Amino acid sequence: MSNLTSVLSDLLVAVPQLRTQVYFKASLTALSHAMEDQVLASTSDQPLLIASFQRERFYRQEAHRYKRLARQTNQVYVLAAPETDFTNASEYYETIAFDPTESLSQEWHLVAIGQSYSTCLICRERPSIVQIKPSPHLPAVDMDPTRQFEGIWTSERQISCIAAELLLQRILHYRPELAAKIELARNRFGIFPQRRSSAKKSKTAAPIALPSLDPAAIDTNPFVQRLVTYLQAGQYKLLKAYRSIAAQERKERLINSITAAIRKGSATGLPLHPQEILKVAVRELGIALGACRCLIYRAQANDDQVAIAHEYLQPGVSSVVGKVMPLQKNPLFQEMTCQQGALCIVDTQTDSRVTDSPLLQQLVKQLDIRSWLLMPVLYQGKLLGIVESHYCGSQPHQWTADETSLVEAIATQVGAALIQAEAYANLEDLNQQLEALDRTRSNLIAITGHELRTPLSTIQVCLESLATEPDMPLELRQVMLSTALTDSERMRKLVQDFLTLSNLESGRVEWHPETLPLDECVELALSRVRTRSNPEDLPQIVSTIPVQLPLIRVDGDWLVELIAKLLDNACKFTPPTGQIAIAARTNGGTTLEVTVSDTGRGIEPNRLEIVFDRFYQEEGALRRTAGGTGLGLAICRQIVNSWNGKIWAESAGKDKGTTFHFTVPTVE
C-alpha cells in the first residue's frame, strides 16, 4: 500500500522552525552533485546516502554516479517509481521501487550523513510559472528549465538525521528485509526512530533543539549557499526570458495553426470560401485570448451596418449571431477606420467615447460589454472586416501589448486569406493562373533544353579537342577532362532528379523506416554538401541540433537526401558571406520540427506555396542566375509526404532570407 504522506511535510512538522525556499531545477542539480562529490571526497568513513527520484529516467541519468558512490560505502539507497525495469534489488546499492501514487513521486530527496559532515535536500515540485494556454489544436509546450521546487537544504546534522529516518521508514515499508542493514546505519550515525513517531503524534509539538556540529566537522554551507544564490539569480533571469519566449511562441503557434487550418481548404485545389476562413479564425482566436466573446465579420469603410455570422463564446455569454451591428453611426468604427489600427476600451462604464454616445451605451448594455477591443482587417490599406473581443465580467480587463499584437497578427492573416479566397473566385485571376501554367510549360522546355544542351555541347567540344589535338599541352588536356567530367556530372544529376521525382510521385519507392537520432542525419547531409562543393564558395553553415531530442522513425537515406537538398538550395541563393542555420525542436509529443534558414535572396510572400511545384524557377527560365531544374524542392515535398509530415517555407521578402520547415515523426 502506498504512503500518501509527504516527507517534506513530516520534516516541517518535526522541526517547525524550518523555512522552505524555492529552487530551480538547475540549482537542485548543482546542489545534489555537490553533495555526492562530498561523499566521493571522504575516504575515512562509510557514509549513509539516500536518494529518491521522481521518475526512472531521472535516475538513469545519474546511475553512473551512484555506482561510484557505492564503492565508498554499502549504505547507499536509491528510490524511484517502478517504471520499465526499475525494481527492488541489491546490486551495487539498494534499489527501492515505490508505488507510483506514493508522495515520493512528487518530491526530490537526497540525504548524505558521514562522521564529519551531513547534508540533506528535501523538496517538492511547484506548478510552473511559464505556461502556454492549452488548445485542442496546439500541442503542449514543456520548458524544463523553468521547473521550480520548494523545500529545505541544510547541513545541520540533527535535521539531516531526522530526514534520513523519515526516508528509512519508507524504505522499510517497501523492503522490510533490509531492517538489519538499516539498524546498523542508525546505530553508526545516531539516527533514532522514536523522533519520527513523536513528531507524528502532534503537529503542535515543541520545536526540537538543534545542536551545533562538531568543531572538527566540515562546514561547506557558506560556499554552497553562495553557489546556489548565484545559480538562482541566473535562473530568474532565464525565467524572465522564457516568459517572453513563451508569449512569442504562443503567438506564432496560433498564427501557424490558423494559417494551416485556412490552407486545408485549398489543399485539393478548390477555391477557399471566405466564410470558412472567418469561422476558423474566430474559433482559434477565442480559444487563445480566453475572452468572453470574439467576433469576426466582413465590413467595408462605406457600409452602414453588418450582420454577425461568426462568433466564439464562453459558457453563459449571450450570442449575437444574426444581430445587426451599426457602423456609420458608430463613433468607434469611424475612429478605428481613420487610424487603421487597434482601438482598446478598458472600461466601457468610464470611457467618454462610450458614455457620450447613446447608441454605444445601448449596445454595451445589450451585449454586457465591460472591456472592448476592435481591430480592423486590412489588406494594402483596404478595410476587409473587423475583429472584436469582449470581456463581460464585473471587472474591467487591462488589454496588454501581447494581446493587441496577437489580434493584429491574426487580423493580418485573415486579411491575406480573404484576398486569396476572393482571388480564387475571380475570373481574371484564373486567367492569370492559366498564363502562369503556360509559362511553367515554357520554362520546363527552356530549362530542360538548356540544362541538357549546354553540358552536351561542352562535353563534345572538349572531347573533339582531345581527339584532334594530340600535341595539346598536358595542363590544357587536364582542363578539358575536368570540364567534361563536371558537365557529365551535371547531366547525371539532372537525369537522377527526373527519375527520383518520377519514382516518388508514382509510388515506386520502397521505404525502410528505422529508429535513429536526427543529429546523425544532419551530419551526413552536411558532409555530402561540403564534399560536392568548393569550401570557398559555401556560406557559413551552423548546426544547433539539441542532443536531448527524442529519436525519430524514418528512412534515414531519404532524410539525409531531404536535408542535403534543402542545404543545396540554401547555398545556391546565399552568398559566401552569408550564413545558413540548421535547428530542430520538439513539436508536440509525436513530431520534431526541423528548420533550414539562410540569409540569402529570400522569396516573395505570395510565392511561398508555389516554390515546391515542379520546374518552378523564381527568376524565369531565361533570366535566372542560378542553375538547376526546379525539381529539388518538389522532391523534398514528396519525401516529407511519405511519412505524412509537413513542409513549408517562410520569408519576409526579397533579400531577407528564407526559412524552410519540415516535420519528422518521433519514436512513440
Automatic annotation (TrEMBL):
Protein name: histidine kinase
Chemical reaction(s) catalysed: ATP + protein L-histidine = ADP + protein N-phospho-L-histidine
Keywords of this entry: Coiled coil, Kinase, Phosphoprotein, Transferase, Two-component regulatory system
Domain of life: Bacteria
InterPro entries from the UniProt entry: CHASE6_C (IPR033415), DICT_dom (IPR019278), GAF (IPR003018), GAF-like_dom_sf (IPR029016), HATPase_C_sf (IPR036890), HATPase_dom (IPR003594), His_kinase_dom (IPR005467), HisK_dim/P_dom (IPR003661)
EC number: 2.7.13.3
Species of provenance: Scytonema millei VB511283
GO molecular function per UniProt: phosphorelay sensor kinase activity
Domain called Histidine kinase: residue spans: 447-668
Positions in coiled-coil regions: 420-447
